[in-house]
Design brief:
The protein has 17 helices and 15 strands. It has helices at about 10-20, 30-35, 60-65, 70-85, 95-110, 125-140, 160-165, 170-175, 190-195, 200-220, 245-255, 275-280, 305-315, 330-345, 345-365, 400-415, 435-460; strands at about 40-45, 45-50, 55, 115-120, 150, 185, 225-230, 260, 285-290, 300-305, 370-380, 380-385, 415, 420, 425. The protein binds pyridoxal-5'-phosphate. Pyridoxal-5'-phosphate (PLP) binds next to helix 6.
């Protein structure tokens, strides 16, 4: 039984797709010329395309399908909820059981005083909420001039105008007149690329102290918050040195600025704990959640908010903000069921104690490949920095991303979804990936690296 009837061959689907469907983060001309791969179904960690090829999805969709594909429980709960109450809003003093139950579950699950949730339909929307909320909070404290949010170059916080402004992606800022005013940026803690001769620990401190310097430059009384991902995901899985987060926490505490931790990728088990904040010992005032919250089965995101912030804004009238789908009943029910599965099947513990260490051991060995400068991994997110010269951690002479794209195309041809960010190859597989599938993943990575290495040597690009 098929969800949507399709009698069309692949070429025709691709032609219709190119004619009418504008793809995110893609060139229309490229899609028209080459056609998109049509994904028909999925189960566990495996996608099936319109030609019947089985593809290992080492990205869990877009970092989101934490419990893997094909879980009937989520479909069943969605169907039951659609029949009982498919939609109602949470504006104007109404509520419903799925939103209440999910809010309570999240308050229990998220560490620290983050006992309140403002629901959104996505991570981008949640970060838009955060911009308005932190400014509203400081205004409620009679400090309306505390408006600036400090972020980081190469951060990813979504694609709405607010989210993309918070993010530090230059390619995004270059289109559409971004960023909005009152967002400022410091450098990312990317030791591999920028650390030079300093030790990772020294470099982590140095990059964290850029925050303190930025606060001094702009004035503490002008700054609302600092926002960061525990591990930069879309920026290329940049795992910070161990010294970085404790110093950031110290600086935020010392200067009375709020700490927004964007857990859209790191949340719900990705780093081997429920939240990246636990892995790195961070105490956020606000936490952005989405993606793994529903394992991608339904669109939902949110902002987890501290007692202090929620109580403060509760007493200054309406917060004039909200989305039609804030706390959507079907999405909330699906998220709750997803959280139940993660907990009851011990998925986080398995990542931390079994499959994570198993993957890490094999992943680190890839650092010996002649094309790999560094292999880094935490939990179920890993990166390979490709390099023509390991010891110097040197970039390629070719334009950034040239070699990464070649490698990505070999991966795709080998039925492995592994992404490239510049010349970093990254993975973020479903958390339920088995040791057997990890072996297959590594085999296909090695094959793709070998093919890339041979090709770029032959083409004179290994330099
Ligand atoms: C994906 C992502 C977002 C944006 O989430 P959407 O649901 O795509 O809007 C925000 N922050 C981080 C860290 C992300 O990875």
């Amino acid at each position: 039984m098929s969800a949507i009837t399709n009698h069309l061959p692949t070429a025709q689907l691709q032609a219709l797709d190119a004619a009418h469907h504008m793809h995110p983060f893609s060139s229309g001309a490229d899609i028209s010329a080459n056609g998109a791969r049509v994904i028909i179904s999925a189960d566990g960690v495996t996608l099936t395309d319109s030609e019947g090829e089985k593809i290992l999805d080492a990205m869990a969709g877009l970092w989101c399908v934490n419990i893997g594909y094909g879980r009937r429980e989520l479909a069943d709960v969605a169907a039951r909820q659609m029949l009982q109450l498919p939609y109602y809003n949470t504006f104007f003093k109404t509520t419903h059981v799925p939103a209440i139950a999910l809010a309570k579950r999240l308050a229990d699950l998220v560490p620290g005083p983050l006992n309140h949730v403002f629901f959104a339909g996505s991570g981008s929307e949640a970060n838009d909420t955060n911009i308005r909320l932190v400014r509203h909070y400081w205004a409620a404290k009679d400090k309306p001039e505390k408006k600036i949010i400090i972020s980081r170059h190469n951060a990813y916080h979504g694609s709405t105008i607010g989210g993309a402004s918070l993010g530090g992606m230059s390619g995004m800022h270059a289109q559409g007149g971004l960023p909005i005013p009152d967002i400022s940026y410091i450098d990312e803690p990317n030791w591999y690329a920028d650390g030079g001769d300093s030790s990772p620990d020294d470099f982590g401190l140095e990059r964290a102290r850029q925050l303190e310097a930025k606060i001094a430059e702009l004035g503490e009384d002008k700054i609302a918050a600092f926002i960061a991902e525990p591990v930069q995901g879309a920026g290329g899985v940049i795992i910070p040195p161990a010294t970085y987060w404790p110093e950031i926490q110290r600086i935020c505490d010392a200067h009375d600025i709020l700490l927004i931790v964007d857990e859209v990728i790191c949340g719900f088990g990705r780093t081997g704990n429920w939240f990246g904040s636990e892995t790195y010992g961070i105490r956020p005032d606000i936490m952005t959640i989405a993606k793994g919250l529903s394992s991608g089965y339904a669109p939902i995101g949110g902002s987890m908010v501290s007692d202090e912030i929620a109580d403060t804004v509760a007493n200054v009238g309406d917060f004039n903000h909200g989305y039609t789908y804030s706390g959507h009943p079907v999405a909330s029910a699906v998220a709750l069921e997803n959280l139940r599965i993660i907990e009851e099947e011990n998925i986080v513990q398995t990542v931390r104690d079994e499959t994570g260490p198993y993957l890490a051991q094999k992943w680190k060995q890839l650092g010996d490949h002649p094309l790999v400068g560094e292999a880094d991994i935490v939990g179920m997110m890993g990166a390979l920095a490709l390099s023509p010269d390991k010891s110097a951690r040197a970039p390629f002479a070719a334009d950034k991303g040239t070699i990464g794209l070649i490698c990505r195309d070999f991966c795709f041809a080998n039925n492995l979804v592994m992404r490239h960010v510049g010349d970093r190859m990254i993975i973020s597989p479903p958390l339920v990936i088995s040791k057997g599938d990890i072996d297959v993943l590594i085999e296909r990575v090695v094959k793709s690296l070998d093919q890339t290495y041979e090709k770029i040597k032959a083409d004179g690009l290994f330099k």
